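Go through this chain.

——
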Amino acid sequence: MTQYTVEIADAALADMEQLYNYIAFSLLSPENAIGQYNRIADAILTLNMMPERFRVMDSEPEHSRGIRRMLVDNYSVFYVIRDEKVIVTDVLYSASDIDKRLKG
């Protein structure tokens, strides 16, 4: 079984920092913020094995780019598989306008 290297793009790291800051400081819940951050980070690390278990998105241009979506609680983790590397591109709140954010 192939083991993949998982890389988190700067944009995805910024997304995760933003969600942490929102929960910790806007919602005044730092314990929940670190818990959510860790659940997302832990889920991302599982992509080192069988990242194909999540299908390529149906919408365009995401489908043509091979972008996949993994749900973690109320958040969507978007990634691509290139050779033996998984690259996480975005981490977005699922209730947000995902199409607009991905195209932006």
The chain is about 40% helix and 25% strand.
